[in-house]
Amino acid sequence: MFLNTHFSKAKKYWYMGKLYDWTEGIFHPMMHALHYGTCTFEGIRAYPTDKGPAIFRLKEHVDRLFHSASVIKMNVPFTKEEVMEAIKLVVKENQLESAYIRPLMFYSYGNLGLVPKFSPVELIIGAWEWGAYLGEAAERGGTACIVPKRRIHNSQLDLSAKLGGVYVQSAINGIAAREHGYDEAIFLNLEGRIAEGPGENICIIKDGVLKTNNREESVLEGITRTSLLEIAPDLGLKPEIGPITKEEFFQADEAFFCGTAAEVSPIVKVTDFSEGFDHGTEYIFGDGKPGPQTKKLREAYLDIVKGKNPKYEKWLYYVNR
What we know:
By secondary structure, the protein is an alpha+beta fold. The protein has helices at 32-36, 58-71, 80-93, 137-140, 167-179, 223-231, 246-250, 292-305; strands at residues 12-15, 18-21, 39-41, 44-47, 54-56, 99-107, 121-128, 142-146, 184-186, 201-206, 209-212, 238-241, 254-259, 263-272, 281-284, 316-318. The chain has two domains: 12-128, Aminotransferase class 4, branched-chain amino acid transferase, N-terminal domain (D-amino Acid Aminotransferase, Chain A, domain 1), CATH 3.30.470; 137-305, D-amino Acid Aminotransferase, subunit A, domain 2 (D-amino Acid Aminotransferase, Chain A, domain 2), CATH 3.20.10.10. Helix content is 24%, strand content 25%. Strands 1, 2, 3, 4, 5, 6, 7 and 16 form an eight-stranded antiparallel beta sheet that branches. Strands 8, 9, 10, 11, 12, 13, 14 and 15 form an eight-stranded mixed beta sheet that branches. The longest helix is centred in the first third of the chain and has 14 residues, at 58-71.
């Protein structure tokens, strides 16, 4: 029996076309993905609106799920439309107004050779109520540290895909950052420039320009990131995409993490441990509090996902329709 202690309000999950009680376990311990990380997933959010719960950019998330599946050579046993309807069903069945949604596509039980010749592709979808990923840091401003380990490079893997096995690097370095007293880690790429967080993109603001990097800098180009680049001009910010050096990062007026789980989470202090945790240099953004432009972006983003900005209602998928 599995408790839902850390999965608030989760009652049921969807697995291969059928709903199961959250407490019910159905997987074999020799399933391929458990041993090798041969899976792909999405993190998606639903928010309360005046028209009931709405899933933010559901189509874009499902499109990326299928793209990621193609990268890991999966034959998906469902259509995109079937997956979208299953996601909406899970939110509805759990009676959630606000939800974090996790579809996971994986090579299941069949064989344990590295190549999953006889392991079928299966899909599971869960949803629960979950606050901001970085907790209070999303409001007060978080602290971050540049870790010594470099991000997996775009020459080694197609980083347009969201693959489960990649996230072991994220987990290790996210733990390390917290062990040293920071809210989150930051990776450099092999070129020594700013890449991303363990599960978030990074944006900086300087002289009215909102800047982030792209896939060539060894990052996953997140859906939240893409949304913020489109929103930026509404707030008088000029969007820019390009490499971010450490020096440019440290000299920014403001900086923040962004992602489905993290939403828009200000960074107020960063320590550079890129040469090792034994010696680091600390940098503070602005006055050490969330910057005014970041706060405006955060507020604008939350208004959009909660259906308060008609211009961007095109991004909302209502669960009860």
